[in-house]
Design goal:
Layout lengths: L38 E10 L2 E8 L5 E7 L5 H14 L10 E6 L5 E6 L6 H6 L6 H20 L2 E2 L8 E3 L5 E3 L6 E2 L19 H4 L1 H4 L6 H17 L13 H10 L11 H10 L10 H5 L2 H4 L1 H4 L1
Helix pairs in contact: 3-6, 6-8
Length: 307
């Protein structure tokens, strides 16, 4: 097995922006004098956005981790995103948010984040590899995501890119929110959050068209819209705003999201499931339920008894 890139010494204790979310003081990242040479690569889990994610094993303990490496020559915007992600991950302390164990900075400028390894990949890959999402399973999935969002929103964090590919899962169907590169840390309650970041397919109507749907909207509700689309997609087996197999483009997505009717579930589902999706996908962001409210929705509140 190949070692992770070169054997250069790394330094810890990265300097982060001064403004930080008010996470609990117990949420810290290990800062022992460790280097990536203590880990051995098992396989590449994915590429993209100027970096690579590896499955690695600690040579002495044989513990398995995911190692996200962002290369020094990556796009400056990607570098800013990774520092934002580091700021959030190193302080997050929730069983529903992927855990960050250590952060390394190499002399050549590469940055590596050592995170917990989720052995079933993402909800997107799980679905594409034949995983089946029944209504009962999705109730449990939705409850876990909402617990993660409720934690983040309580600490003034908006994810802005909730989608199946950013939700990790293990073989026990434990789901955790990941990939905070485009998240926004709200410094004030009324901070605007209507920039075009994240995956446009999962953007809410007010993010696509703030003039029509209200500028300076409550950004937290955008995460709820994305959650609704995610749960609907997992149930239907394809992106719900387009026909199965249709390739999305910006204009088609904008028309579907801003001018089309909100997507709905097919016949045969429970009233609780249909109501839950409607509470997530109300085009009026002010009428969308919050993460806290949705946790008490009958679809989620009874999910533990359905398993």
């Amino acid at each position: 097995m190949a070692l992770v890139r070169d054997r250069g010494q790394l330094k810890l204790g990265l300097r982060l922006p001064e403004r930080r979310p008010r996470f609990p003081p117990t949420a810290t990242t290990t800062t022992t004098t460790t280097t990536t040479t203590e880990y051995e690569t098992v396989q590449v889990l994915g590429h993209g956005n100027g970096g690579t994610v590896y499955k690695v094993v600690h040579k002495k303990t044989l513990d398995v981790f995911a190692l996200k490496v962002v290369h020094a020559d990556s796009d400056p915007m990607m570098r800013r995103q990774i520092f934002r992600e580091m700021e959030i991950l190193r302080r997050a302390d929730s069983p529903f948010v992927v855990k960050c164990h250590e952060i390394f900075e190499k002399p050549d400028g590469d940055i590596a984040i050592l995170m917990e390894y989720m052995d079933a990949g993402t909800l997107d890959s799980f679905s594409k590899n034949g995983g089946v999402f029944t209504e009962q399973t999705l109730a449990n999935v939705a409850r876990q995501i909402l617990n993660g969002l409720n934690y983040l929103h309580a600490h003034k964090i908006i994810h802005r890119d909730i989608k199946p590919a950013n939700l990790l899962v293990n073989k026990n169907m434990e789901v955790k929110i990941a990939d905070f590169g485009v998240s926004k840390i709200m410094c004030r309650t009324l901070d605007a959050c209507n920039s075009y970041v994240g995956t446009c397919a999962y953007m809410s109507p007010e993010r696509f068209d703030p003039d029509s749907y209200g500028a300076n909207y409550n950004g937290y509700s955008g995460d709820i819209w994305s959650l609704g689309l995610t749960i609907l997609e997992l149930y239907m087996g394809h992106f719900p705003l387009l026909a199965s197999g249709q390739k999305p483009d910006w204009a088609t997505l904008m028309c579907a999201i801003c001018f089309g009717e909100p997507p709905s579930l097919p016949e045969g589902v429970s009233d609780e499931f249909r109501s839950f999706i409607e509470c997530c996908l109300d085009k009026d962001s002010g009428k969308r339920w919050t993460a806290s409210q949705l946790l008490s929705h009958p679809f989620c509140s009874s999910s533990s008894s359905r398993q």
